[in-house]
Amino acid sequence: MAILAGKTAAITGGAGGIGGAIAQRFAEEGATLAVLDLDREGAEKTAAALRGPATGHFSAAIDVGEEASVEAAFAAAGEALGGIDILVNSAAIAGAATVEEMAVAEWDRMLHINLRGTFLCCRAVLPGMRRNKWGRIVNFASEVAHRGNPGLSHYAASKAAVIAFGKCLALEAIGDGICVNTLSPGPTDTAMLAGIDEEVIAKLVNDMMPIGRLGEAREIAAAALYLASDDAAFCVGTTLNVNGGSYLQ
Ligand SMILES: NC(=O)c1ccc[n+]([C@@H]2O[C@H](COP(=O)([O-])OP(=O)(O)OC[C@H]3O[C@@H](n4cnc5c(N)ncnc54)[C@H](O)[C@@H]3O)[C@@H](O)[C@H]2O)c1
Q1: At what angle do helices 17-28 and 40-49 cross, to 10 degrees?
Q2: pTM score of the predicted model
Q3: pLDDT score for 1
Q4: Could you tell me what percentage of the chain is helix, strand and coil, using 3-state DSSP and rounding each to the nearest 5?
């Protein structure tokens, strides 16, 4: 039987590289998807392209940093799918600036989307998961949260905070069969790296990636599938590093 047969899953950032790959992998494993993204058209396209045993996939625009937008999108998704069993919080932004160069607005925006967004989306799905006595939440960190990187203090801080947030929520939720865990990828070939010079990427791979290449979105999706499945029932507040050896914990 397909691993997620009969399950519903909401993916924020579902129009993105990793979110899109997760949506497709979950669909192949039998889930019905709600693809949510700031990019409404991208979310629609991702949902329309999903192939798998289930039908009736849903898509909607969401701004994960805005409470009203999150509440409305999850209410619509829950109604369309008959509830949300699995939440993947893949939506995020990145950016580069040293601490001295950084505008306060840049700092605030990073925390607003990456951290507050994760909090708001988790909060939106918890009541339904508690009623069902089953749920899976997969939050997204990054290896830079563990090892640091010049120019990424705001991004790394937001991702380290997601890990801490997830540990606390995991302890609050496990009593109702809800497993909250964090997936921490290494550099992965998606639009998030698109603005970076090829030379910089080549140096990053050479200096930091023992595997000798970037990750592929489908490799991160495979890890998300595990954390979203029944098989992850004993994973509570853990962080799964999938990074080609760039950071070893
Ligand atoms: N790609 C990497 O190298 C890498 C490495 C470590 C961690 N990650 C994390 O993996 C996750 C997925 O990243 P990706 O590589 O797929 O990036 P991506 O840029 O391809 O996708 C991110 C998606 O988030 C959406 N988004 C941005 N702001 C939003 C908002 N306010 N509300 C709703 N949606 C919003 C974007 O429209 C986009 O579709 C992120 O959490 C990222 O931080 C990525």
Answers
A1: 30
A2: 0.98
A3: 84
A4: 50, 15, 35
Any atom of ligand 1 within 6 Å of the Cβ of 64: yes
CB distance 39 to ligand 1 below 6 Å? yes
CA-wise closest residue to 202 among 191, 213, 186, 217? 213
226 in catalytic set: no
Distance 192 CA to ligand 1 centre (A): 6
Q: How far apart are CA 81 and CA 32, in angstroms?
A: 7
Structure tokens at 130: 């508690």
User: What does the pLDDT look like over 34-44, one tens digit per residue?
Assistant: 999 999 999 99
pLDDT tens sequence across 110-144: 999 999 999 999 999 999 999 999 999 999 999 99
Distance 197 CA to ligand 1 centre (A): 19
- Cα distance between residue 213 and residue 3, in whole Å: 29
What structural domains and CATH numbers belong to the chain?
Answer: 8-239 (3.40.50.720)
